[in-house]
Amino acid sequence: MKDTWSKAELAKAYVKHVLRLHGVSRDIISDRDSRCISHFWGELQVALGTQLKMSTTFHLATDGQTERTIQTLKDMLRACVMEFKGSWEDRLDLIEFSYNNSFHASIGMAPFEALYGRKCRSPVCWDDLAESVVLGPQMIEES
């Protein structure tokens, strides 16, 4: 979410990127951003039948899963920037693909599998790599 988004832009983004793809969430956890606790956003939550739960800002015990996700994505982006330097933006789709097809302990599977009910097919057959080590985009070494 961009810091410059208005309340209306935030609501539109929620409908476009969350509601239309996944339906109405039962709970939304917020770090008390003023746009999320506004009257408008509160009314939207009531209209959708969603409960907005407020966490204490930067309180990991309350919102630890979100903080962990942010740290994981930062690490993935940092590695991509270091590897691809000037063309890292062109690889953002692959970072998203990788994240969505990685095992997540909180749900016991990859997000792709949770959403579609099956494992994602990819160009690389991961079963064949069970005894191998992936070293980079083009290099696989037998272990």
From TrEMBL:
Gene3D superfamilies: Ribonuclease H-like superfamily/Ribonuclease H (3.30.420.10). GO terms for molecular function: nucleic acid binding. PROSITE patterns: INTEGRASE. Transmembrane segments: none annotated. GO terms for biological process: DNA integration. InterPro entries: Integrase_cat-core, RNaseH-like_sf, RNaseH_sf. Residues 1-119 form the Integrase catalytic domain. PANTHER family: CHROMO DOMAIN-CONTAINING PROTEIN-RELATED, YALI0A06105P. This is Integrase catalytic domain-containing protein. It comes from Saponaria officinalis. The lineage of its organism: Eukaryota, Viridiplantae, Streptophyta, Embryophyta, Tracheophyta.
